[in-house]
Amino acid sequence: MNIRYGHLFLILSALALPAFLYAQTAVADSLARILAVTPADTHRVILLTDYAWEINELHTDEADARLQEAIALARRLNFPKGEAVAWNGLGVVEEIRGNLARAEQHYRQALRLRRSLGDRRDVGASLNNLAVLLEMRGMIDSSIVIHRENLAIQRELKDTLREARALFNIASAYQEMGLYPEAQRELLEARLILESLGNRDEIAKVYTQLGHIQFELDRYPAALEWYKKALALRVKKKDPGRYAEALTDYANALDEVDSSDLAINYYLQALTIWKELDDLPGQAKIFTNLGDANKHAGKYAVALDYLRQAESIYLSLDDKQMLMEVYNVMGDTYGRMKKFDKALEYTNTYYKIALESKDGKYLQGAYKDFSEVYSGMGDYATAYEWRVKYDEYRYSRLDEKIGSEFARKEALFADQKKQEQIEAQKRELRVQDAELASAQTRQLALLGGALALTLLAALLFNRNRIRARANRELAAKNDAIQRERERADSLLKNILPEKTAEELKQHNIVQPVRYESVTVMFTDFKGFTTIAEHMTPEALIAELDRCFRLFDTIVEKYGLEKIKTIGDAYMCAGGLPTPNETHPVDMVNAALEMQRELAALMAEKVVAQQPVFEMRIGIHTGPVVAGVVGSHKFAYDIWGDTVNTAARLEQGGAPGKVNISETTYHCVKEYFNCTFRGNLPAKNKGEIAMYFVDGRRETVDGRR
Q1: Cα atoms in the 13 Å half-sphere on the side-chain side of 514
Q2: Tens digit of each residue's pLDDT (9 = 90 or more) over 623-639
Q3: Which alpha helices (DSSP H) does 558-697 contain, by range?
Q4: Chain segment 67-120, per-residue pLDDT in tens
Q5: Is 690 left (phi over 0), alpha (psi -120 to 50) or beta?
Q6: Which sign does the torsion angle of CA 525, 527, 532, 535 carry?
Q7: What gap in Å lies between CA 15 and CA 282, rounded to an integer?
Q8: Which is it for strands 658-661 and 615-629: parallel, antiparallel or unpaired?
């Protein structure tokens, strides 16, 4: 299921609210009395910011007014440190109001003042506030750059606890971007620091986040181990909310490793806590999880009872996001009960919400669920239509996600590299300043008479030596830059056609080109999802890599252009970027060889009693537009109806066969034996005639 973690810190804040507000009111009243008799000095500036902090949750307008007063007074008194604190407080107020853009302006103003004062600890605090806010605004790339600057400051200050927290924040941002190896690396570094400090609460957070990474990668046994460690560190009496969350995480992983009955026990423990705390969102989340776990255990009536309780709460909270999850599980439950009318009703319900909210994840899920429900009802034509929608939408979202992740990663590490270069330059400047100061001191000490001449000669010699050394270093750097440039050229030509890469280097842009005749091929493995469920991720990736390397060799052999891989699908084209007249024949030859080589490879798997891949291939010839997309991670791609038709032909093909369109057939029929196999319905195109390629024709003298 999709609800895993919830808004933990928001929930905990709500739990502590009554006691917090009582203490807040008492402190605020005390500060108000002191302010009434405090003169307009720096102490008053501090009192105004403290008072605003105590009341900002309930009285944002009053807090705003007091902070504005503090800023005005600090400026009159030339008290920039107090002014920076007040600007930071205004940022918090705007954050509470939901005005995140204004909050960012105030945080940046506080940061500017603190940078001018040179207080590294205060600068680090402002950087942390700003980075967290940028994450809230969805500006993950920028937030990581700022988190890293804060990390450098905490290391400089040797504040190991704040260093670990900065690493944790960086990891969370990486995880949000889907950069799981990078996130895990930062978390493991934070873990070492926190374990040396013995900070149980912070260690539990790190263990939990490590579990989340494994969970999102579908490595449920590994996630279970991390959640178990986090749960062992949580104490119910000390922090019941976090203890309940730890129980829920552990139960989620248990449910995914087919231990649903055991998971239900942990969910019930968490539910008891949320009821004691009178926390409705927490209860609703557990009701949904209990519905899902009982569904997996085959207890459908119990599952529906829990799901209706969750629905009631989310309706009262008007939480449409979580309602979609509840209706999704309800539809699946009714589907397992073979009550397809009810399953269709709930799938329609969450589909409409997803359309209104433009939620891509649930739209994709609805397409798949519609296909399964209609299939269960025996309406296979409608089921097929929804399945086609699901496949097309899934591929488009996957393309978008991959492109976004590559672009973000490219920009992110470019910024990181730039920061490292800046730090290196600063270190060099400090060394040069130290050398210059030392030389000046010697010069002043030894001035006079004959010694002055001797010192001058020594100084000139030393300067020439430094200049020569600098020239050598500059030459070495130029060599390194040239090597990196050559390496970059090589990498660019590896991901783009050589002609396109040269155009990109010369003009920094690639103009789209229309090709009137190109042959496009799609391949896809039958039952890949089912096979993947029975293989480890490492073994699965290794098998795909082996197959795709084989395909790459064949594509290169026939002068074709690999476009991309999409999951277990492989896409290539012939007749571009340099047009030719042989591309239909070249493509069919390549397709037949791919099927032969894959069959030979799979024969080894049969002997070893390992899972076997069977492949469908679809080919179509027609016009396309080709170009480069992206500004950071370049990708050469093609567009047009020809591409869509080739994909449809692959979907309508058969394992072990090469399925071609009528257009391609007319281009290759003199060279290959083909069998007409019927028409394929295609949206907005009517029907497409299809042919199976049986093999190459023999020439008159009997040779192939």
Answers
A1: 4
A2: 998 887 665 556 788 88
A3: 583-607, 641-651, 662-668
A4: 999 999 999 999 999 999 999 999 999 999 989 999 999 999 999 999 999 989
A5: beta
A6: negative
A7: 10
A8: parallel
